[in-house]
Write a structure and sequence with these properties.
Helices cover 66% and strands 8% of the residues. It has seven helices and three strands; from the N terminus they run αααβααββαα. It holds the Pfam family MarR.
Amino acid sequence: MTDAVDLVIEQWRKERPELADGLRSVEVLGRMQRMQLVYDQHYKRISDEFGVNVGEFDVLSTLRRSGAPYTLSAGAFAKAAMVSPGAITNRLDRLEDKGLVERIRDRADRRSVRIRLTGRGKALIDEAMVAHLRDYDEILSVLTPEECEQIASGLRKIFEARGDTTLT
């Protein structure tokens, strides 16, 4: 079985045989790059179906997985979401306009803000998460559980070696 990455590698081996050892990285990273297209298509389907983009989905899922009452301080949210404050503000503005989250000012300290998932936001992310996982399962259905674990383990090693522990 061959794919487009195999063709690229074969062409380089013919043209520059001395690069053969270095081309092993293309076998993995080239396919990861192509996998990004699959990932993008997945999130386009989620966006079309549920009306939230990938960043908004991340906000909703961060709040939902935080547990009841699905509320985080702005600081805790920023830490959990691992994105810039500007990106969070833009996402929150859009989600607030859609009625999916709300900002709650602390009565004791008006500078302090909490972000809460609304009932409508909770219902949407609960439904979207089922579709999200169904798509992920379909994408990975050609792999055995052992193959999935090998890939996950290998990628985890790469991220740990690079000191990358972010969620997004």
